[in-house]
Amino acid sequence: MAWSSRISFAVILVTLSVASQSHLYAQPQTLTGRVTDTSGIAIQGATVYLPALQSGVATRPDGTFSLPLPAGNHDHKIIISFLGYLPDTLVVSTDDAAGSLQVMLLPGIVAIEGVQVTASRPDNITVIAIPVSAGVSIPSVTGGIESAVATLPGVASFSELSYSYSVRGGSYDENLVYINDVEIYRPYLIRAGQQEGLSRINPDLTASVSFSPGGFSAAYGDRLSSVLDITYREPQELEGSLSPGLITSSMHAGGRSRDKKFWFIAGARYRSNAMLLGSLDTRADYIPRFADLQAMAGYKTGDNSELTLSLWGSSNRYTFIPRSRTTTFGTIENAFRLYAWFEGGERDRYDNGGAALKMVIRHNERVTTKILLSSYIAHENESYDIRGAYSLSSLDRTEGPDSGPDTLLNAGAGSWLTHARNTLRTGMTGLSYRGYLNGSRNGLEWGVTAKHRSHDIGLNEWLRVDSAGYTLREEAEGVALTSYTDRASNISSFIAEGWIISRSSFNAAGKKCDLNAGIRASYDTYNSELLLSPRISLIMALTGRLSLYLSTGAYHQPPGGREMMLKSDDPQLLLRAQRSLHLTAGSHYDFIAWDRPFRFTAEVYGKVFDRLIPYTVDNVRLIYRTGNVAEGYSAGLDLRVNGEFVKGAESWFSLSLMRSEMRIPSASTGWYPAPFDQRVSFSIFFQDYLPGHPDFRANINIAIGTGIPTSPPGREQWDVWFRIPPYRRIDIGFSKVLIGQKKNRENFSMKELVAGIELFNLADIRNTISYTWIRTVRNSEGQTREYAVPNYLTGRMVNLRLTARF
């Protein structure tokens, strides 16, 4: 079978025994290396066997291994194997111990007692391993890993311009993201997706992606919804890429020294979404400029130790000078048109950067420890003064052309003035120690972390909307403002965290079981609150194809930067951690169709919350109320089937059903929909190529979801609410491999050259992200009314890009 035909993007779930099965022996001469699949993703638990000594070791979670070699300058046969992959036999000498061996296993299908087993890594309960190639090839406006995450069951994204996503009814702030064991943060002052810039995750540098929509282990920090765990790549040879595009351009380079002790990888990106913003209703001068630089280097300080340094920084500038806006909305029988014109503008700046230094020490065959020092700073500034006037007209669809019906009457006129001078300075510094004790059937993991955080918050913003003079006070108190915020606070605290996890494998009723039990504790001087979070999960393999699992635990979310923006300085009103109990049950079923591997996953879950901080959503901005006064629940069903619908290319279909509600007992509100209560969502990520011509590729990304609730300004969300229209979007991409890995390699220094075209919003559906509310007082009909004018997202757009890999 040809090399290209063996390439597989099979979805791989990592087993609950994340750090078990490593055996390191302190020997004078040791062969080291790393085992991956054809996508470059590490394979944990692969056997590296030395027949001459009838001994072997298993690869670690990062795919690395250390195998003692007998003394003497002669050759040895090494066999590397893992269930579902074709074994690889190598001949090495004792002198090869000075270097690092790189092994790539090819996926295969083998038969064991009548059951076909395909390439897959051990299950890690609720964790989904996402192929890195999906984050690179998925057609979407933002692109990247988050776009692939949004196609998974239980995950919803409501704006193609934003990297933010909601998981099982949770808010954007409830998701953890790690890169190389360092927690990362997104800007707090962002109000709209077009301001976000670049995601912190660089797909060009990524080696593996793991995502858990809930029920994750105690090794991860305190959030209520999900965790996304990213590992960056350690290059084994000189490599690079250059990818110019109309929206995003990127480049990266990496390499390793001849003695294999030193390696580095770095990437730079630039993004401008001005072309996309031109399809919005508001005609304006959009000047978005986003850039970032990330670099990582490692040095092997000894036979069993390595030091890694990571640096990153980003500069995001967004300038917005509006001129006019025309929006038509309503129904055929009751249609309206809003026309507005503006003066002024907006200038925003979001800068952040950080560094991390990590030391990994493998003490012996069973014990590995990590020491991690990290620091992060962010400066955010939001400044705007925009004055506008509007005219709202009722349309007569019976007169005039279809594209421009006549105006029947004026429903209202008015003006508004918005002002903001918002600033945020954030600093995070942390020191962490982690340990791993690995055995053949059991394992132990522990860790402690000390962090200091600071938030210097300054908010000054107001809005004045006028229609027929209703904002003017009758008394001599001046002009009334529709909304006004003036806050200034400086918050800092120390946080201490610790966790311990026990992993064990055993047989019950003749079935193989894996148990993960742990507890996490944290203490924050901000509110002097001690949090304990026990978590436990169990998976049982009923057959070679069918596994059942159960996960439960306690999860907390201490108040962060965004929740604190509207809090009172009164010590009696200090916010406490929001709390949740998770219960998840599910099954995996692996099967063969069309001689190719597939997996069907079904998962039911329930989450109960208390001490929630109520919030509302405006575009992608979350606005919190003061106080832990709410409680709620989320429950649902997630279904997913993934596999090689087309040989050599993995695709998946996802379906989610969910209900998420809240209530405020002290206000006797009764149950009302949570802000991200999306009842039904369906998504498809599909990869294809022309039969007989795999260099012609197509990728399609489809998202359909019911609307989420929203409320008029000044109204409580439990009193008056309605749902935004359903979100529907189709993005499709086509690519052609101009230079393949086997074409003219002697004449070209590049490995691959790919040209691509993407069609965003193929059906040109006008999705709604939020509303602008217009109030008329004593209009032409003598009525006082409020109109919800939809703020539409982007229309159909074409993107071109070219990618060269060296």
Task: Give the helix/strand layout.
Elements: E1 30-36, E2 47-50, E3 55-58, E4 64-68, E5 75-81, E6 88-93, E7 100-104, E8 110-112, E9 115-117, E10 128-130, H1 132-137, H2 145-149, E11 155-156, E12 166-167, E13 175-179, E14 182-183, E15 206-212, E16 226-232, E17 239-243, E18 248-256, E19 262-271, H3 274-277, E20 282-302, E21 305-330, E22 335-362, E23 367-396, E24 406-438, E25 442-466, E26 483-508, E27 511-524, E28 529-541, E29 546-557, H4 561-564, E30 578-593, E31 596-612, E32 615-618, E33 621-624, E34 630-646, E35 649-663, E36 672-673, E37 680-690, E38 693-705, E39 709-710, E40 722-723, E41 727-739, E42 752-760, E43 768-776, E44 785-792, E45 797-805
Parallel strand pairs: 1-7, 13-16
Antiparallel strand pairs: 1-4, 2-3, 2-5, 5-6, 8-9, 10-15, 11-12, 13-14, 15-16, 17-18, 17-45, 18-19, 19-20, 20-21, 21-22, 22-23, 23-24, 24-25, 25-26, 26-27, 27-28, 28-29, 29-30, 30-31, 31-34, 32-33, 34-35, 35-36, 35-37, 37-38, 38-41, 39-40, 41-42, 42-45, 43-44
